[in-house]
Every structure is written in structure tokens, then in C-alpha cells.
Amino acid sequence: MKKDTKLILIVLAGILAIVLLCIFAVQGTQNKAFTLEEQVNTAQSDIRVQEKRRVDLVYNLADCVMQYDKHEAETLTAIVEGRGSSGDIENVTTAITAVSEAYPELKANENYKELMNELSITENLIAEYRSNFNKQVKEYNRYVRQFPARLFLNILGYETQSYDYLNYNAPVDAPQNLFGD
Questions:
Q1: What proportions of the chain, in percent to the nearest 5, are helix, strand and coil?
Q2: pLDDT tens, position by position, 131-149
Q3: How many Å apart are CA 170 and CA 52, to the nearest integer?
Q4: C-beta of residue 134 within 8 angstroms of C-beta of residue 165
Q5: DSSP per-residue string spanning 80-125
Q6: Residue 12 Cα to chain centre, angstroms
Q7: Burial class (CB in 10 A: 0-12, 13-18, 19+), 149
Q8: In this structure, how many other beta carbons lie within 10 angstroms of the beta carbon of residue 147?
Q9: Could you give the CA distance from residue 13 to residue 172 in angstroms, rounded to a whole number?
Q10: How far apart are CA 90 and CA 82, in angstroms?
Q11: Residue 138 CB neighbour total at 10 angstroms
Q12: What angle do CA 121, 137, 45 make, to 5 degrees?
């Protein structure tokens, strides 16, 4: 009887060990799937953040450039009017000197360059984040389809994800008429 009890206990311990091993294997597979899924979601969020940055940046920089452009136009108009109203070269020189002291350098072209540079950087970041999203989806899909993980993950409801990297509710058309008429 003692031998039979030992044999039963050994068999039960073996079965319990196998069951626990299976549980840990399935849970480990699911944990990796969780991690990969979170990486995909983070990559998707990064794209949305950059697209939001693009929209905010375009309007804020365009407004800034417009305001500075208006300031320069007013300054140059004042200089031209100063030249036109007086035939005296001394008065014109005085007006130009006063304007140059008040506004040492006209920089609208630098603002336009900065606007274009920021837009270029933003577009490059968006392209980089989209590429990262594609890599994350690829890695996730590869893991979900690999054997033996797919056996467990199919039962748990994991499916491959699609490469919807261009569909992020961003405006379809580019902003128009930013600088007015």
C-alpha cells in the first residue's frame, strides 16, 4: 500500500508540474503579447501627438509670421512715406535712423525660413513615427502568428493588427490661405 501511495503522489506531482508549466507558458506568451500590443498602441499615440503638433504649429507659426510681416510692412511704409513727404534728404536720413534704432533689423524672411524648417522637422518626425508604428505592428503580428504562441493567443482572442498608419483622423487636406489675401 505504501508503494501505491508513493506512486500516486509522484504521478499527481508530475501532473501538477505539467499543468503549472503549461499555465506559466500560456501566461508568458500572453504577457509578451501584452507588451507588443502596448508598443503598437504607444507608436500609434506618438503619431497622433505629432499630427496634433503639426496642426498647432502651422497655425501658431503662420500667425506669428503674419504679425511680424505686418510689422515690417508698416515700418517700410513709414520709411517710404517719410521719404515721399519731404524733399529734404536730412529729414529722410533722420527718419531712417530713427526707424533703424527702433527696429534694428527686419527679419520676416528669417521667420518664413523658421516656419518652413519647423514644418519640415514635424513632417520628418511624423514619417519616422509612422515607420516605427509599422515596425511595431509587424513585430506584434509576427509573434501572434508564430507557433506555439498562436495556439494560445487564438484561444485568448488575439488577432493580427492592420497597418492603418495613414488613418489617424488628421485633416485630409492641407491648411489653406494661412496668410490671408
A1: 80, 0, 20
A2: 888 888 888 888 888 888 8
A3: 8
A4: yes
A5: HHHHHH---HHHHHHHHHHHHHHS----HHHHHHHHHHHHHHHHHH
A6: 54
A7: buried
A8: 6
A9: 62
A10: 11
A11: 13
A12: 50
The answer to whether the beta carbons of residues 152 and 30 sit under 8 Å apart is yes
- Mean pLDDT across 153-170: 67
What is the C-alpha to C-alpha distance for residues 77 and 102, in angstroms, rounded to an integer?
15
Query: How far is 132 from 16, CA to CA, in rounded Å?
Result: 43
At 97, the amino acid letter reads T
Specify the pTM: 0.55
| Alpha-carbon span 104 to 92, nearest angstrom | 17
Amino acid at 101: E
118 Cβ contact partners less than 8 Å away, ≥ 6 residues apart: 57, 61
Residues 40-53: tens digit of each pLDDT:
888 888 888 888 88
Distance of CA 20 to the CA centre of its chain: 42
